Amino acid sequence: MLRTIIIDDDEIITFLQRNIVKKCELDPDPYSFSNAEVALDFLRERTSSEEFLIMLDINMPQMTGWEFLERLKSVPNNQNCFVVMVTSSIDRADKRKAANDSHVVDFIEKPVSARHCSKLKGLERLAEYFEETA
To answer: Would the pTM count as exceeding 0.85?
Structure first.
């Protein structure tokens, strides 16, 4: 099962994202962190078989999303982490930078919507996690 982690320093955005993730059936109980360092600690403590969809904000005060991505590379089993950059940034350089990181599967402008969730479920790298079983 692919678990969802929301990393954003804005409580209102986190609240909205948690509700969308639940409503769209990405994850019935997503984890959320307002501090990216705490999220990294959480990932370091997880088992090797767990897989995560990380909805990551770029602009945060203690650690930016870019810094998180760089540090994620040192987390054991980081290949089990799929990152969606969720940001208010419309900077093309941010989109290019995200496209060049092997963990990043998508780049979404805030706020996350049901349409975005449907798109995520259809991405080649994520589709297997959302296939319905008979």
So the answer is: yes
